[in-house]
Specification:
The complex is a heterodimer of chains A (about 110) and B (about 240). By secondary structure, chain A is mainly α. In chain A, about 75% of the residues lie in helices and about 0% in strands. Classes of the chains: A mainly alpha (about 110), B mainly alpha (about 240). At the A-B interface, helix 1, helix 2, helix 3, helix 4 and helix 5 of A face helix 2, helix 3, helix 4, helix 5 and helix 6 of B.
Chain lengths: ~110, ~240
């Protein structure tokens, strides 16, 4: 890794530490001076979900390093591993079976579809 | 620590051991995902020890690999961590008597596990009478016990995952553990129709606009999902759990 790239990671880690402090102590920092309305709390409710889905969906449906949706294709092992993991999670609601089944189908798809 | 405080601290440690299997599994998977990303072992260990927010770390990895700008990664971490903003409202109510810096430190160590354990044990903040009867602040020591057990088990397991995974060849495809772990985080959030539609919107927008620069598709997807969630969510709702 180049010096420039590792400096970027160092800044990123510092930034993420600040984000951890900021979010976990948000109202501690604000004290009781500021009240967030019910509406405000409702609005942010789906933000964590949306952010995680926005990260996950391209990881499952597009090849690594894709530049656009045009690169979608069904030979992508991620799609099959992802679908298998979704089904496993739906029935088990647990991490370990989801992980084992998702990884197994992903690995099988890598060999068969490659 | 007085003997009573030490006892509460130890109760806290022991209570947390009920969640140990879950914490350790999570943490090992997060460690593996970090080691198999573009981070070096040292960077992964630094991130684990300092950032201490598993879902934000998992979300950051693909963005780092794709060279997204720092600010996009930080906005995304903030969004993923917004649940802690809601927790901090509860934390403030429970520990308003502490000095600001102690509350900030307490906030930093308050994860999903320790917050939920505390709220389960003490659903309401102390009343005036309870506070007067508790000069040793025993509830604080219980919380510190939860947090210590959580931090230690998370870090040991995470660093174990990083070191183990760094010994495994890259062509085993272990990096796929990151996306699978995200599925398990997301699953329980899809508890109602409006959440499902918000999720479908976020996914569709993120994939369709994948080609735009700086990974701004993430920001667009969050905006679109919040909009859809807000419009659909007109049903009388249960209050946000504090």
């Amino acid at each position: 890794m180049s010096d420039e790239a590792s400096m970027k990671i160092a800044y990123l880690i510092i930034g993420m530490v600040v984000v951890t402090f900021l979010t976990r102590s948000f109202f501690v920092l604000l004290g009781s001076r500021i009240k967030i309305s019910e509406w405000g709390l409702e609005t942010i409710r789906y933000a964590p979900l949306a952010a995680l889905i926005a990260i996950l969906a391209p990881e499952i449906f597009l090849p690594v390093g894709a530049s656009s949706i045009a690169e979608f294709n069904l030979r992508l092992p991620n799609i099959w591993g992802g679908i298998a993991a979704l089904i496993a999670f739906y029935f088990s609601r647990r991490m370990i079976p989801t992980l084992l089944i998702g990884m197994a189908i992903y690995t099988a798809a890598r060999f068969w579809l490659a | 620590m007085t003997p009573a405080q030490r006892q509460e601290f130890i109760y806290g440690l022991k209570d947390m051991s009920h969640s140990a299997v879950t914490i350790v599994t999570w943490s090992v998977v997060t460690g593996i995902a970090m080691a198999k990303s573009t981070l070096t072992v040292q960077q992964a260990i630094a991130m684990s020890l300092l950032v201490y927010a598993g879902s934000a770390q998992l979300a950051a990895l693909p963005l780092i690999a794709l060279g997204a700008p720092i600010w996009v990664i930080l906005v995304t971490s903030f969004m993923v961590n917004l649940r802690f903003v809601i927790f901090s409202l509860g934390l403030q109510a429970h520990f308003s008597y502490l000095s600001t810096w102690r509350r900030i430190l307490l906030g930093y160590f308050t994860t999903d596990f320790s917050y939920l354990a505390h709220i389960k044990r003490f659903p309401k903040p102390e009343t005036k009478a309870e506070k007067a009867a508790d000069p040793e602040h025993l509830r604080l020591y219980r919380m510190m016990g939860f947090q210590a057990a959580n931090w230690i088990s998370w870090q040991v397991a995470s660093i174990t995952g990083i070191l183990l995974a760094s010994q495994i060849p890259n062509d085993w495809g272990l990096e796929f553990a990151g996306p699978v772990a995200l599925i398990v985080i997301i699953g329980p959030m899809l508890d109602r129709t409006s959440a499902k539609w918000a999720a479908v919107t976020a996914g569709a927008v993120a994939v369709m606009t994948y080609g735009i620069p700086y990974r701004l598709n993430i920001i667009l997807a969050i905006g679109a999902a919040l909009f859809v969630g807000m419009i659909l969510d007109k049903s009388p709702k249960e209050r946000v759990v504090l």
